[in-house]
Amino acid sequence: MPDPVDDPDFVELFTDGACSGNPGPGGWGFILKHPASGQSREGSGGEGDTTNNRMELTAVIEGLRALTRPSGVAIFSDSKYVLNGLDKWLDGWKKKGWKTASKQPVKNVDLWKVLDELRAQHRLTFHWIRGHTGHPENERADELAVAQRDLHAR
Known about the structure:
There is one protein chain. Helices cover 38% and strands 29% of the residues. By secondary structure, it is α/β, with parallel strands linked by helices. A five-stranded mixed beta sheet has the order 3-2-1-4-5. Helix 1 (52-65) packs parallel to helix 3 (109-119).
């Protein structure tokens, strides 16, 4: 496998979601970084009535949707729910008809189905970052998400 920094199709995706109340107004933010070129791109949005997990999922969805071609993507998130879902649970949920191990319906199944389609288009790796510890891209993704949350709280 080539060094990711030398791979023209490799990107780093940093994501975060924020919610005031659960449910309540929420926001999401992402940063796409292209190590080979040094370029980066940001995106954000929000909803008036949502949950933190939906915003975390939406951040990853929108970051992947922003890509213009199949890519190697290192996803960095402080959400173990998102990372475990993508890396460990998703295939099992699909095999069980979108049911959890306890035979309950998967929460946020609409978003998980979108993520399932997107992950088929890219080569994904998953990296957990502890939130609010000064990691520059995680802090910036949080700023984007919080700004959108506050905008949608009005």
